[in-house]
Amino acid sequence: MAGHHEGRPSMIVMRHRASGALAVVTGLGGHGEPVWEQIGPLPAWVPADLAMVAADGTITADLDAARARRWAAIKAERERRLRVAPTSGGPLDVDETGRSNILGMMQALELLGPGVEEPIVWKRADNVLGHYTRQQFKSVALEALAHIQAVYAVSFALEAAINAATSLTEIEEVAWPDA
After folding, report:
1. Taking phi first (over 0 means left), then psi (-120 to 50 degrees means alpha), and beta for anything else, what does residue 93 get?
2. Could you report the per-residue pLDDT of 121-177, keeping only the tens digit for each?
3. Are 176 and 158 in contact (CB under 8 A)?
């Protein structure tokens, strides 16, 4: 994005003659001509860690690397959002253990029906003990499961947007709606 790298020193993209590896340097010191070939200045809009040389010889951003980096950030945020689900009965843990516990209780309610004592006492994500009737627990459990599905649905849409992006700016603009 324009202005993204303002104030950085002038950088040069070099290619190792033997391996083809790229290096972005602030000067030519230590990078002798026999080993390194000077490609040209790094454009201001290209982050040094995403620099690549296109087939036509121009220096550009590696969009596949940018996509991978953005998707990793989206997944990290997805995992954060999948820790706790807000429900009408208070916040519930919905990490892997929390989901397993919720599904286990739902199964017990189905199999045992009235054999499950009320109130169902459940430690919520805020460390408060919630007291639920069978129906209340089923309702908050379904809300928690709906939260999980909604988080995944948004992350899949963001992944599609990342993959459809055709520029570094478009890739970097993909973000969670409420972030």
Report:
1. beta
2. 999 999 999 999 999 999 999 999 999 999 999 999 999 999 999 999 999 999 999
3. yes
The Cα 44–Cα 40 span in angstroms is 12
Q: How far apart are CA 82 and CA 122, in angstroms?
A: 19
pTM score over 0.85: no
**DSSP string computed for the chain:** -TTTTTTPPP-EEEEETTT--EEEESS-TT--TTTEEEEEEPPTTS-GGGEEE-TTS-EEE-HHHHHHHHHHHHHHHHHHHTSEE--TT--EE-SHHHHHHHHHHHHHHHHHGGGS-SSEEEE-TTSPEEEE-HHHHHHHHHHHHHHHHHHHHHHHHHHHHHHH--SHHHHHH---TT-
Residue 17: both structure tokens together: 């003659």
**Residue 75 phi, psi (nearest 5):** -65, -40
